[in-house]
């Protein structure tokens, strides 16, 4: 495996959910306050809603959008 995929994340930024903002592809999302998180996956551009994400959970997913529609979780941080 590439070091890029197995090494710890090197960058982080707070994410404000928005249906049109395109992000640097993530290695994961940290959810500070739980709820639903709707994202666009990098691989196939599919829009997916992760339901009942727990407070403090790190989702190991590569996304380029965190949508405001259907997202009620908050304090989301993208890592890459």
Task: Name some characteristics of this structure.
single chain, 80 residues, mainly beta, three-stranded antiparallel β-sheet, 7 strands
What does this structure look like?
The protein is globular and about 35 Å long. The protein has one domain. It is mostly beta strands and 80 residues long. The protein has one helix spanning 3-6, and strands spanning 12-15, 28-33, 35-41, 47-53, 58-59, 63-67, 74-79. The model has no long low-confidence stretch (mean pLDDT 94). A hairpin with a 5-residue loop joins strand 3 and strand 4. The protein starts with a helix and ends with a strand. A 4-stranded antiparallel sheet has the order 1-7-2-5, with no helix packed on it. The chain has a 3-stranded antiparallel sheet with strand order 4-3-6, with no helix packed on it. It has 1 helix and 7 strands. Helices cover 5% and strands 46% of the residues.
- Stretches where pLDDT is under 50 for at least 5 consecutive residues are none
Question: What is the percentage of strand-forming residues?
Answer: over 45%
How do the SSEs run, as a string of H and E? HEEEEEEE
Shape: globular
Question: What fraction, in percent, of the residue positions are helical?
Answer: under 10%
Largest sheet: 4 strands, antiparallel
Distance between the termini: 16 Å
What is the typical, i.e. mean, pLDDT? 94
By secondary-structure content and strand pairing, the structural class works out as mainly beta
Number of strands: 7
Spatial strand sequence of the major β-sheet: 1-7-2-5
Radius of gyration over C-alpha positions, nearest whole angstrom: 12 Å
Whole-number count of domains: 1
**What is the number of helical segments per DSSP (H or I, 4+ residues)?**
1
């Amino acid at each position: 495996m590439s070091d890029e995929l197995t090494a710890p994340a090197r960058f982080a930024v707070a994410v404000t959910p928005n249906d049109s903002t395109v992000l640097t592809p993530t290695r994961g999302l940290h959810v500070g306050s739980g709820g639903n998180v709707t994202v666009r996956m990098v691989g196939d551009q599919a829009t997916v809603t992760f339901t009942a994400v727990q407070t403090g959970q790190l989702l190991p997913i590569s996304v380029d959008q965190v949508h405001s529609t259907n997202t009620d979780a908050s304090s989301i941080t993208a890592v890459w």
